[in-house]
């Protein structure tokens, strides 16, 4: 298994973490092709998560934007309300086979935390979720859900109290607890093999979307659009389309108050000035100053409020296979309201970024063109943030 995507990825970790990473890679290499493991994973995706998720033709939004036909991949309809559960089920099944009895996780918007707490309850494992103090304030509903599911929510008060700081604390905890504890990383970030493993557990989104659009339209889409922070939902839906060169892959980053203001969370978009560096065990594009110090990220969306992106996204950016754009908080909030009003679907603020970019490009496309937008999660967790905006 490759440890890098081009120059990106790798394992930039303390020596004490090398053994558990090697142990994890060996286990994943074994079970990713194990028929019983795959059978059990698919069983829980179907019977517990509720897959397949629909690929829904958004007719009203299509008429409103008067351009390409818009399809929505409805990951918001999964159990726990987001794509995060696909990855969590896979990692927890792997943890069980490795003999681990406890799990830890980090979370920003809380969707990964809720998914991990849910999986831990299902499989009878002790669960601790690290969450920044600021995100705990922004995502009270998901904090309540995690506690209801039996997880301990460990507040992180360092730094800006957001996802980066929660990840730092989760890694520190893993160093201490590695003997009996599995670290469930929620995105395509961190040291190898996490970016590859999480992408593989999320590729079910793209596998289904590709099959479904061929059934409905007898052709592939012109573009696939997904939001990108760490980028797990985007990596999942992009991957099965990588070899389809006529399909444009578009990742949408959080432009916050505007790329030019410096208050954003974009690293790959034009004008973002992301720099290649090392964070959380991986080499990737980051928000950093000239000395390599990490700069704070800023976004209305807690799930995109991360000062870097997954190494595979950095590779897709440099290779030109995917393009990355940004939208502002204001544009994301407008898209949140637009999808709610036109289709009766309240999207997560993260997903609203993808919808917001579609609002810009769809009217410029031909009416026989097709766009697939990944609605990675539902937005009930974000209602208070919208009310306060």
TrEMBL record:
Pathway assigned to this chain's UniProt record: Amino-acid biosynthesis; L-tryptophan biosynthesis; L-tryptophan from chorismate: step 5/5
Classification via SUPFAM superfamilies: Tryptophan synthase beta subunit-like PLP-dependent enzymes (SSF53686)
Name of the top EC class for this enzyme: lyase
Alphabetized UniProt keyword annotations: Amino-acid biosynthesis, Aromatic amino acid biosynthesis, Lyase, Pyridoxal phosphate, Tryptophan biosynthesis
One GO cellular component, as annotated: cytoplasm
GO molecular function list: tryptophan synthase activity
Modified residues (N6-(pyridoxal phosphate)lysine): 84
Pfam family for this entry, one: PALP
Entry cofactors: pyridoxal 5'-phosphate
Gene3D superfamilies xref list: 3.40.50.1100
Domain Tryptophan synthase beta chain-like PALP: 50-377
Domain of life: Bacteria
Catalytic activity of the protein: (1S,2R)-1-C-(indol-3-yl)glycerol 3-phosphate + L-serine = D-glyceraldehyde 3-phosphate + L-tryptophan + H2O
EC number annotated for this UniProt entry: 4.2.1.20
Family recorded in the similarity comment: Belongs to the TrpB family.
Self-association state and partner proteins as the record states: Tetramer of two alpha and two beta chains.
Function: The beta subunit is responsible for the synthesis of L-tryptophan from indole and L-serine.
Protein known as: Tryptophan synthase beta chain
Organism: Vallitalea longa
């Amino acid at each position: 298994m490759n440890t890098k995507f081009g120059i990106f990825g790798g394992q930039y970790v303390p020596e004490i973490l090398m053994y558990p990473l090697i142990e994890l890679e060996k286990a994943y290499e074994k079970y990713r092709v194990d028929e019983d493991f795959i059978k059990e994973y698919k069983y829980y995706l179907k019977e517990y998560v509720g897959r397949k998720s629909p690929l829904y033709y958004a007719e009203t939004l299509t008429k409103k934007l008067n351009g390409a036909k818009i399809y929505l991949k409805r990951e918001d309809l999964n159990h726990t309300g987001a794509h995060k559960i696909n990855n969590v089920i896979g990692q927890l099944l792997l943890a069980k086979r490795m003999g681990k009895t406890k799990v830890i996780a980090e979370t920003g918007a809380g969707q990964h935390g809720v998914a991990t707490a849910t999986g831990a309850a299902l499989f009878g494992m002790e669960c601790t979720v690290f969450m920044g103090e600021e995100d705990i304030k922004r995502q009270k509903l998901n904090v309540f859900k995690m506690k209801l599911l039996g997880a301990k929510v460990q507040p992180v008060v360092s730094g800006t109290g957001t996802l980066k700081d929660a990840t730092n604390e989760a890694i520190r905890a893993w160093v201490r607890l590695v003997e009996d504890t599995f670290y469930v990383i929620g995105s395509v970030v961190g040291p190898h093999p996490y970016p590859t493993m999480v992408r593989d557990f999320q590729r079910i989104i793209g596998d289904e979307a590709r099959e479904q659009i061929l059934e409905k339209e007898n052709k592939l889409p012109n573009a696939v659009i997904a939001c990108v922070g760490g980028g797990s939902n985007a990596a999942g839906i992009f991957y099965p389309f990588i070899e389809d060169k006529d399909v444009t892959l578009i990742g949408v980053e959080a432009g916050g108050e505007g790329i030019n203001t410096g208050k954003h969370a974009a690293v790959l978009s034009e004008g973002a000035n992301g720099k290649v560096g090392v964070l959380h065990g991986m080499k990737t594009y980051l928000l950093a100053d000239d000395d390599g110090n990490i700069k704070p990220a800023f976004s209305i969306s807690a799930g995109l409020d991360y000062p870097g992106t997954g190494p595979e996204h950095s590779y897709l950016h440099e290779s030109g296979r995917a393009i990355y754009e940004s939208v502002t908080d204001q544009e994301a909030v407008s898209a949140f309201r637009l999808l709610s009003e036109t289709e009766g679907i309240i999207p997560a603020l993260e997903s609203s970024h993808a919808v917001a970019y579609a609002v810009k490009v769809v009217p410029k496309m031909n009416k026989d063109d097709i766009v697939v937008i990944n609605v990675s999660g539902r937005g009930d967790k974000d209602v208070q943030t919208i009310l306060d905006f």
